[in-house]
Write a structure and sequence with these properties.
Layout: E1 9-13, E2 16-20, E3 24-25, E4 30-33, H1 34-37, E5 51-57, E6 60-61, H2 65-71, E7 73-80, E8 84-85, E9 88-89, E10 96-97, E11 109-115, E12 118-123, E13 133-138, E14 143-146, E15 151-156, E16 164-170, E17 175-176, H3 178-182, E18 188-193, E19 196-201, E20 210-213, H4 228-234, H5 240-243, H6 249-252
Parallel strand pairs: 13-20
Antiparallel strand pairs: 1-2, 3-6, 4-5, 5-7, 7-16, 8-9, 10-17, 11-14, 11-16, 12-13, 12-15, 18-19
Length: 257
């Protein structure tokens, strides 16, 4: 994994975690256990890997730290265990991003898949009417942008291959789970059936429609095909819209992932 996506770091699966090259710093990963995420699952009593995923927030090259602090940007890396959570694929808890004090916005987030296959699920609202709902199917190198305020979760589309991804976030990031847990999850549950993902509507939401799509080019945000950390190295201002989403407010209207 070293250098392939712009950072000298290695992903470990047993146990879940990361190691960093000499010019990269990052925290000890936080481990999310099955017991910690049961409230967001379709079957809270299901079996699955005890360690579901490892997350390291604020990974960076040493020489980038000052610039990242100044721009209120933070880079995170997450790796998932292989396997199943009952009849669901391994996945994160559904959440929305807490409003950042410095911007007054619920921050967007930009994902990049590093290994495995992902489904980035997102919905406009976490209330009775979820609004537009999307499942974006993404593979290594693909980028997926979560707009401000949307509920979302990241799902492994393979039971055999661990999923790893990086993401640009706001430095004042925070996760809010209460609304999702009050609705027993997000509006659509991914289920594994004969090694394929199928979708079941969550009855705690009004009936709606799920759009399954593939990643697109976000030309309006000047995002290229290069690794997203490398894009920051090349142009530190490129991802300023992540920590200052109000600066591109018109682009969020009628956003389509």
């Amino acid at each position: 994994m070293a250098n392939q996506f712009g950072l000298d770091m290695t992903i470990h699966t047993t146990p879940l975690g990361f190691s960093y090259g000499d010019d990269v710093t990052g925290p000890m990963p936080e481990i999310r256990t099955l017991d910690q995420i049961r409230a967001s699952l379709r079957d809270p009593d299901c079996d699955g890997p005890e360690q579901v995923y490892a997350i390291a927030m604020d990974v960076a090259r040493l020489q980038d730290r000052e610039e990242l602090n100044k721009r209120m940007l933070l880079f995170g890396v997450v790796t998932y265990a292989a396997g199943l959570l009952g009849d669901e694929p391994v996945r994160s808890q559904g959440h929305i991003h807490r409003i950042s004090e410095h911007s007054g916005w619920s921050p967007p987030e930009l994902y990049e898949i590093w290994q495995g296959k992902a489904i980035i699920y997102m919905q406009e609202y976490v209330c009775r009417d979820a609004g537009r709902c999307f499942a974006v199917i993404a593979g290594p190198g693909d980028k997926v942008l979560i707009p401000p305020g949307w509920g979302h979760a990241t799902i492994s589309a393979s039971t055999q291959t661990p999923l790893t991804f990086g993401a640009w976030c706001d430095r004042e990031y925070g996760f809010e789970y209460d609304a999702v847990r009050a609705h027993k999850g997000l509006a659509w549950y991914p289920l594994v059936q004969d090694r394929h993902i199928i979708w079941q509507h969550n009855p705690y939401y009004a009936p709606g429609r799920l759009q399954v799509v593939t990643p697109r080019q976000y030309e309006e945000f000047a995002i290229t095909d290069a690794p997203i950390y490398q894009q920051f190295i090349d142009d530190p201002a490129r991802f300023q819209f992540i920590s200052r989403p109000g600066s591109v407010a018109p682009l969020w209207h009628h956003f389509h992932p």
